[in-house]
Design goal:
single chain, 575 residues, alpha/beta, ABC transporter transmembrane region fold, Rossmann fold, 2 domains, four-stranded antiparallel beta sheet
Length: 575
């Protein structure tokens, strides 16, 4: 889709500005009042020259100061309310856009998250939408207010002496063309700048999150070089933008000066008293036009930045998720049997390439403890991703109790499954909150019981604040084994009929692993459980073990059976 400027403006108006038109119209009323004060000011200046300077009229000496005070009060109030109301509308639009974009991103397929970085998403939610807000609020305040002011001033100047209209028209005709050229160039630079900001955000996030790796491999200098290079690129683009955007300022100043000189020259050749008063009034009027015309130039610059940001915004919004809550029937669990039938899958979704899974056929029996073992890259974690519908296979079907998981509501599918992975993610919150994340509303007793099952209660109570202790960003204040046990407690608390354990014990020491397996025996009772593991010692007691290699099941049976019948299993067991 080609995101042209008219399309972006119309869409921003239709989807986000229209609901707040009432507030915007209120702001515009005050802007009009503010703008009308400009020709009134010129009228007062004209009267000061004619009535006071020339004629020393006592009547006007008393009346005009009163007019000036009233005008100042009206102008101040109108300026205040126009800014506040327009800012309210603008920040409201930002609020709506940020909510919509976050909702879309968090509900998008994992495929989109693989294509974009978290830094890119963060930049779009914060930086891009802030740029759009600047156009909607700050710039609209200036545009409407100063635009009406220009109209009012020009109207009064024509009223005083229509010949000045020719000068004004010439002034604007000369300015329009270079402004349009500047706007096109600025939009390109703005888009580049926003992409660079996103890249910088990503680099910073990676450096901070990977600080342990950075320090372990003395990578501080490398990280400094990467970040410094991106900062320098951003600076160079910013300087280009500043050069382009500020071309209009000297141009306006020069042209305004020339126009004012022409007016003085033209009107200075008359001896008429009223004409001489017009000279003063029109000169002030021309000077008054400098600020609003410059402001309109600023609007053009900010508008192009906002349109570049809007293009990046709608590029994400217009990427529909393939896997959605399709309002299909809810998944009904009778026993929990999971069945793969001729399933083929590849992550890049390309027409050609290596399949991670190749016409995979196997069954996870209901209520049984099934293990999936194999070398790294054999497709074990991919199986878990497909069961949860993080991705859909290119071929074949996956069913639970005879129900194709593509045909049921995806939220009801995930409501029936608990997942524990080797890469544990914890939120920067309390231990209790992290455990109950899977099941909001659970009581303190239920949370503690889940922790006991996961062998986590003992170490949690050793913290000064117990379950209310904060874990730090991604559990930085906890060891790997502690994080793993909290993740297990999270799954225990959810209490679902299907349990997926992807290297769930990889961070546990032998003692903790033994304690966990004692608890696991109770946890898996009556549940359909799939255990993915490298340590074969963790799946010896599984009811059924599948050996997977390069996306295909090459052997199956109990531990004892596979030791007797499968040389590949024997090699894996002896590693």
């Amino acid at each position: 889709m080609k995101y042209t400027s008219p399309y972006l403006i119309k869409r921003l108006f239709r989807e986000y500005t229209r609901p707040r038109l009432k507030t915007i119209f209120g702001a515009m009323v005050f802007m009009i009042i503010f703008a009308l004060s400009k020709p009134v000011q010129l009228s007062i200046i004209n009267d000061v020259y004619l009535k006071i300077v020339n004629h020393q009229s006592l009547h006007y000496t008393t009346l005009l100061p009163i007019k000036i005070v009233i005008l100042a009060i009206v102008t101040g109030i109108a300026g205040y309310f126009s800014t506040v109301l327009m800012s309210k509308a603008g920040y409201g639009i930002v609020n709506d856009m940020q909510k919509d974009l976050f909702k879309h991103i968090v509900n998008s397929d994992l495929e989109l998250h693989h294509q974009k970085t978290s830094g890119d998403f963060t930049s779009r939610i914060i930086n891009d939408i802030t740029a759009i807000r600047a156009a909607v609020t700050d710039v609209m305040v200036v545009t409407f207010r100063q635009g009406f002011a220009i109209i009012g001033v020009l109207a009064y100047m024509v009223y005083r002496d229509w010949h000045t209209l020719l000068v004004a028209l010439l002034f604007f005709a000369v300015v329009i063309y270079p402004v349009s050229r500047v706007a096109r160039r600025l939009r390109k630079l703005a888009k580049i700048g926003q992409e660079q900001n996103a890249s910088l955000t990503t680099l910073l996030a990676e450096s901070f999150k990977g600080i342990r790796v950075v320090k372990a491999y003395n990578g501080e200098g490398f990280e400094e070089e990467r970040v410094n290079n991106m900062i320098d690129k951003t600076l160079r683009n910013k300087i280009k933008s500043i050069r382009v955007s500020n071309i209009n300022n000297p141009m306006f100043t020069i042209l305004t000066g020339i126009a004012a000189a022409i007016v003085v020259w033209y009107l200075g050749h008359t001896s008429d008293e009223d004409k001489r008063a017009a000279i003063v009034t029109i000169m002030v009027g021309m000077m008054t036009l400098i600020k609003p015309v410059k402001s309109l130039s600023g609007f053009s610059n900010a508008l192009q930045t906002a349109l570049a940001a809007a293009e990046r915004y709608f590029t994400v919004i217009d990427t529909p998720p393939k896997i959605t809550s399709n309002n299909g029937p809810k998944l009904e669990i009778k026993g929990g049997e999971v069945k793969f039938e001729n399933v083929s899958f590849r992550y890049d979704n390309a027409e050609t390439g290596n399949d991670m899974l190749k016409k995979l056929n196997f069954t996870i029996p209901a209520g049984k403890k099934t293990a999936l073992v194999g070398h790294s890259g054999s497709g074990k974690s991919t199986v878990i991703n497909l069961i949860l519908r993080f991705f859909d296979p290119q071929q074949g079907s996956i069913s639970i109790d005879g129900q194709d998981i593509k045909s049921v509501d995806v939220r009801s599918l995930r409501d029936k499954i608990s997942l524990v992975t080797q890469d544990v993610f914890l939120f920067d919150d309390t231990i209790a909150t992290n455990i109950s994340y899977s099941s909001p509303g659970k009581t303190t007793i239920e949370i503690e019981n889940a922790a006991k099952v996961a062998s986590a209660d003992d170490f949690i109570k050793k913290f000064p604040e117990g379950y209310q202790s904060r874990v730090g960003e991604n559990g930085l204040r906890l060891s790997g084994g502690q994080k793993q046990r909290i993740s297990i407690a999270r799954a225990v608390l959810r209490d679902t009929p299907i349990l997926l354990l992807d290297e769930a014990t990889s961070s546990l020491d032998r003692v903790a692993e033994t304690e966990f397996h004692d608890a696991l025996d109770k946890l898996v009772e009556g549940r359909t459980t799939l255990i993915v593991a490298h340590r074969l010692s963790t799946i010896i007691n599984a009811d059924l073990i599948y050996l997977i290699d390069q996306g295909e099941i090459i052997a199956s049976g109990t531990h004892e059976e596979l030791l007797k019948t499968s040389a590949n299993y024997q090699k894996l067991f002896n590693l």
